[in-house]
Amino acid sequence: MRGDEVMSLTINIYYTGQNGSAKKFAEEMMLSGLVDKIRAEEGNEKYEYFFPMEDEETVMLIDRWKNQEALDIHHKSEMMKEIANLRNKYGLKMRVEKFKEWEDWKMEFEEIIRKRTSVRKYSDKKLEQEKLDKILEAGRLAPTAKNSQPIKIYVVQSADGLNKLDKASRCRYGANTVLIICGNKEEAYHKGAYTTYEMDSCIVATHMMLEATNLDVDNIWIESFDENILREEFNIPTEYTPVCLLQLGYKAEDCPVNPLHDKRKNIEDLVEYK
Ligand SMILES: Cc1cc2nc3c(=O)[nH]c(=O)nc-3n(C[C@H](O)[C@H](O)[C@H](O)COP(=O)(O)O)c2cc1C
After folding, report:
1. Within-domain flag for 255
2. How far is the CA of 54 from the centre of ligand 1 (A)?
3. Which atom of ligand 1 is nearest to 120's Cα?
4. pLDDT in tens, 240-264
């Protein structure tokens, strides 16, 4: 069973010094046995230094912890004082990036493809911000024609916003997060009068839909909405055209199975080798 406790924390720390001091710091960390001690700590899954080729004065540390509790214990340990002393000794600046990883949640791609289905009844369970961030990031990384990225995504979560959305579409199905994916016709790649804004928007939406499934977030793609009402309610600028909605959340216990999900044409009906 997948659960919220299945998660790990990754911290990237960039140490920057002068005249090779960052490298000397990493060497002393390793030779003094400190690194081995940290690796032996309960809940440590990774503690490794990397030396980026493009920056001689920076050393990157990647450490991963089983959960927040393990990281908290590490922060209070004697080793943290020793690390701080060494950092001061070498006069290093520090930049920290922290990621929550849902690694254990990741499915094989084929499983995601097979598992995704349209959900038409959602519970009140709130969508976690970490998951929403990952879903939006999947949209950001989607390909677009000529890399024009003519996209705007509105995230609707407030009660007021959801009420407005209900005026434009009857297909919210109780989801408490809705993405409005819009494309900019002018910014998109042009071929005569034709522009790829719809294609680009759909690829972005597909990336997000599959990432949602990957994270066990239920979803449905909706094209049934009144464009004018949507524009008016959300003050969508004229240059953007709403292409689709993506409802996100967790299905209600009594959510019906979509009877159409298993009804697909045979591969021979879709594919023809020439
Ligand atoms: C482009 C597109 C538009 C859709 N629009 C709606 C919609 O407006 N309302 C709705 O209830 N479902 C909508 N759906 C969901 C489809 O009905 C659903 O994907 C289809 O029945 C296949 O079922 P499955 O997603 O469970 O595999 C849409 C899906 C796509 C891809």
Report:
1. no
2. 47
3. 11
4. 999 999 999 999 999 998 989 989 9
What pTM value is reported for the model? 0.67
CA–CA distance, 11 with 64 (Å, rounded to integer): 6
Question: Looking at ligand 1, which residue's alpha carbon is closest to its atom 16?
Answer: 118
CA dihedral 32, 34, 35, 36 (to 10 degrees): 90
pLDDT of 159 > 70? The answer is yes
- The pLDDT tens digits for 30-45 are 999 999 999 999 999 9
Closest Cα to residue 217, out of 244, 247, 243, 245? 247
Of all atoms in ligand 1, which is nearest to the CA of residue 169?
8
Residue nearest (by alpha carbon) to ligand 1 atom 4: 222
In angstroms, the CA 244 to CA 230 distance is: 11
Distance 251 CA to ligand 1 centre (A): 16
Q: Is residue 264 situated within a structural domain?
A: no
Asked if residues 200 and 146 have their Cβ atoms less than 8 Å apart, the reply is no
Does one domain contain both 227 and 189?
Answer: yes
What band does 102 get if pLDDT is binned at 50, 70 and 90? low
Per-residue model confidence (pLDDT) at position 98: 83
Q: How many residues does the chain have?
A: 274
Residue 118 Cβ < 6 Å to ligand 1:
yes
Residues paired with 242 in a beta bridge: 182
99 CA distance to ligand 1 centroid (A)? 33
- Domain CATH code at residue 156: 3.40.109.10
Note the pLDDT of residue 2: 44
- For residue 152 the two structure tokens come to 């705007």
